Predict the 3D structure of the following.
Amino acid sequence: MDNFQQHLPTSVLAEILENAFQWFVVVDADSKILYINEDYCRFLEVTREEAIGKPVADIIENTKMHEVIKSGVPDNASPHYIKGTYMLANRVPLFVDGKIVGAFGSVIFRDMSDWKRLSSHVRTTMERMQLNIEDNSYTEYRLEDIKGSSPAIRKIKETTGIIAPSDLPVLIEGESGTGKDMFAHSIHQLSERSDFPFVKVNCAEVPVELLERELFGVYNPLTETVQNGRVKQADKGTLYIDEISALPLTLQAKLLRAMQEEEITPLNSEQSEKVNIRIVASSNISLSQLIEEKKFREDLYYRLQAITLKIPPLRERMEDFVDLLNFFLQKFMLHAGRRHITLATKTRELLQSYHWPGNVRELQNILQAAVYLAEKDTIMPSALPSQIKLSNVPSFQTTGTLEDILAEVEKKVLQSYLEEESDKRQIAKQLGLSRSTLYEKIKKHNL
Ligand SMILES: Nc1ncnc2c1ncn2[C@@H]1O[C@H](COP(=O)(O)OP(=O)(O)OP(=O)(O)O)[C@@H](O)[C@H]1O
């Protein structure tokens, strides 16, 4: 402490006390005023000379400084009624060598509307920060980030370029992991709304009972304020509604109103608000089928589907496979600080013949793991997850004598081991054979 004081001249200390808090008072152990700043005196309509040395209760009405001195417990953010208004005050006891020598008090909000304003300002700032955190948690994609040169992908990219600048809603259909998010982002980036927010909501991830407030906001009667939902947050920008098929029918009606009348009504409110949003929606199941099952409103569907981008699953556009493979391999090599990694021919074949239910996302994840796990410069099939290796289990004949069938199985198993591993010692070890037996079998099967 002494050390600090040496560096902090009294004049500076006084300046800090004058300015650090709007209103500030220090009392001694008998609750007599030792210090009070100018601003506080002005408000109390006393001079500083009059105030200093007086019992604090004579100068500040409803003060609780003496209670804090008695209890030794701070009293923070507590309402204090002075001159006809409620203010928010902090009162803190001062201890020296374990003994209470006084207390200080500060008024942190001069009236409760100050507080209300600030609290609503803090909330909006927090909402914006939250939005940014979520926005930044995934990359902002552009059309050129979408790899692949299959006719399907080229066509969809071309259509995206044409329709993006308009304000029309867009529906993107495709299985999970096909790149729907990437297209939604690209549409926003290429539109005149790109300087305004891109807000995403995944209807399947938000619990149904919270979806209405998440989308349309909620009115809080206590604070008399509206907490904005995603629609309002996307004002002037793009609202990306992922998995729109999970949107309940009642909310589908509200969304349609937001699109047609450019108006929303927050939950618990009777007041409509104007909004200006472009909707990009995506679904990994066919919405037309949901209409037949009466789970999706026909009017909303027709409003959305005028521009539909249908992204085929990866297995139906394997022309993109090599582009995607090379792209991810380069990317993850760079991330992992590796200079040269290739795929063994068998690894490549296994990947190529897999049916990719998780689409591009699955390919990306598998390559990432394989690059990080690769000990040498070649990724062997053993680095692939079992679902890929199992999808390629060799088939064998089931007719003939048992001896013939077993010989066929033995040949196929040896063949697949030899393709995966060049070190025969390793193969013999894995199959529980001596090296000489392995060589005999290789010779017998002409491998
Ligand atoms: N054509 C592509 N080029 C490069 N990366 C791609 C491509 N398609 C998808 N990806 C990558 O695959 C991952 C999944 O893509 P995205 O999130 O856009 O899929 P999605 O269809 O929206 O999936 P979901 O329906 O599960 O939300 C992303 O990390 C993205 O980088």
